[in-house]
Amino acid sequence: MDKDDTLLIGKIVGVHGMKGYLKVYSFDESIDLFAPGRQIRLKKSSGTVSTFTVKDVQSYKNVLRIVFEGMSDRTAAETLIGSELLLKRSELPEPEEGEWYWCDLIGLAVHDIDGTYLGHVENLFETGSNDVLVVKHGDEEVLIPVTESIVCDVDFDEQKISVDLPEGLL
User: Fold this and answer.
1) Domain spans in the chain, listed from the N-terminal domain onward
2) Which CATH number fits domain 6-91: 2.40.30.60, 2.60.120.10, 3.20.20.450, 1.10.10.10?
3) How many CB atoms within 10 Å of residue 146?
4) Which residues are CB-contacts of 61 (< 8 A; sequence separation ≥ 6)?
5) Tens digit of pLDDT for each residue in 133-144?
6) How far is residue 73's CA from residue 140's CA, in Å, rounded to a whole number?
7) Cβ distance 145 to 138 under 8 Å?
8) Mind listing the pLDDT tens digit for each residue in 66-106?
């Protein structure tokens, strides 16, 4: 993945209160991506893209409450419902050792530790206890839990993931 690729990091799903706060469903576990002062691009359903600067962010249940500079009332905030929040990949902090961004894993080849090609990562999803790789090979699809005991190595130079699958997973 190119470091200049634009990534979807959240979606505006509603408004909160009368002071321009937006309810944002974040696709990232960290509130840090939405820190005050960060510039975020919003893509409306019409396709227009505008840049806004975060003024304040609060975590609330399963959403974030965000207000942008210059946004001070509910009416203005309502016009942004449904907008997607975008950042360039290069604006994301580097993940910690042993952690990866989903977008960086999509497309990588997956091999069992014996070298058998299992397919490529088409998608990922979250189960609550761990993430799951959706690996496709032709019409075949296998779901591989992302756990330390199964994912042995992620090699971005080789563009591959090595896994040690428990018996019966395939």
Assistant:
1) 6-91, 102-163
2) 2.40.30.60
3) 19
4) none
5) 999 999 999 999
6) 51
7) no
8) 999 999 999 999 999 999 999 988 888 888 887 888 888 99
